[in-house]
Specification:
Blueprint: H1 25-31, H2 52-62, H3 66-79, H4 88-92, H5 94-100, H6 104-124, H7 132-173, H8 177-185, H9 192-233, H10 235-247, H11 252-264, E1 269-274, E2 281-285, E3 296-303, E4 309-316
Antiparallel strand pairs: 1-2, 2-3, 3-4
């Protein structure tokens, strides 16, 4: 977590004069440069002016990296709303950053985003067949990139909300601004232990839970591609069946073509047989078909009303998720 610890305001020696609003003069000098000054304030009476004390309270409530956050938060206060911005720690490890900043509900939400992305990917995985690169890219976007981008764009706004709540909490129970500063300084704005235990733990748990279904989905993806490749190699056999039936009414030539296909492709096709009576093609899948090696698919010819041959794909004991769309019942 590349966030430096913000230094505490040094206490001057001796008697400290008090500014208006009950803040010590040393505190006033600390936040003097953080006071929001709006250009042309004389010409823009409607512009929002942020009270100077808020800069000090925000700085204490933020803790590490206050120099980065406080100017943004004061700008949010001036405009009345937060704006999305890039945030590298929240991008690289969203739950770790959230728990480090004591954003408890947000940390849980960031931990669950990859799981939600995995469910979304599972719903779309079957439509990504044909390219391993496309499949892996879609997985990375769903499980990592989209959750990370969503987290990083919301990070500043979420931390601003927590800081505002902390400041409002101490101010509501303090009798003066100096008491509010004292009460706020006693709180720890970050927790390295929570970042490691909860943030790092959530990443490990998510990876442990997601890897088995992701691997199973990849096996199904690879199986669908392999079956589709095997069926594509049988096109010449189907053409031979149709041609042999039209010319001779027998399937001897088609059976010879089937033998040649089986001999030339041993990875995805182990054996091909053509029925001498019906022309039905039976293919036994080869050892390189994940999850379906040794299983069979029947390609049955049927003549439609227009006297055209239509082929029906009938899988034998093959799970539907391992089949390309053309073979799903």
């Amino acid at each position: 977590m590349n966030e430096a610890t913000a230094g505490a305001c040094p206490a001057p020696s001796g008697t400290t004069p008090v500014l208006g609003g009950g803040l010590p003069a040393a505190v006033g000098s600390t936040f003097a440069n953080d006071t929001v000054r709006i250009a042309g304030i004389g010409q823009a009476p409607s512009a929002t002016v942020v009270r100077p004390a808020l800069a000090v309270l925000f700085r204490i409530a933020v803790g590490p990296e206050a120099d980065r956050y406080v100017p943004r938060f004061l700008d949010f206060e001036r405009s009345g709303r937060a704006r999305p911005g890039w945030h590298w720690p929240a991008f690289l490890a969203p739950p770790v950053w959230a728990f480090y900043r004591k954003l408890w509900p947000e940390g849980i939400a960031f931990s669950l985003l990859p799981v939600a992305g995995a469910f979304a990917f599972a719903a779309l995985g079957a439509s990504l067949d044909g390219s391993d690169a496309t499949w892996w890219a879609a997985l990375a976007v769903s499980v990592w990139l989209f959750p990370a981008v969503l987290s990083t764009l919301a990070a500043d706004a979420l931390l601003w909300g927590r800081v505002r709540r902390d400041v409002a909490s101490v101010e509501s129970g303090a009798r003066s601004a100096s008491k509010a500063v004292e009460a706020l300084s006693q709180r720890k704005p970050t927790s390295l232990a929570a970042a490691i235990a909860f943030g790092g733990g959530s990443i490990v748990v998510a990876a442990t839970l997601l890897w088995p279904p992701i691997r199973a989905e990849y096996v199904a993806h690879a199986a669908r591609d392999a079956v589709a490749t095997a069926l594509a190699s049988l096109t010449v056999v189907q053409d031979a069946v149709e041609s042999a039936w039209d010319r001779t009414g027998t399937f001897a030539h088609a059976r010879n073509v089937a033998l040649l296909v089986a001999q030339n492709d041993r990875r995805y096709v182990e054996d091909v047989a053509v029925s001498p009576s019906s022309g039905r093609v039976r293919v036994s899948l080869g050892p390189s078909v994940p999850g379906a090696a040794g299983k069979s698919i029947l390609l049955a010819p049927a003549v439609d009303e227009d006297r055209q041959v239509r082929w029906m794909c009938v899988p034998v004991d093959i799970p539907t998720r391992y089949l390309p769309p053309a073979c799903r019942r």
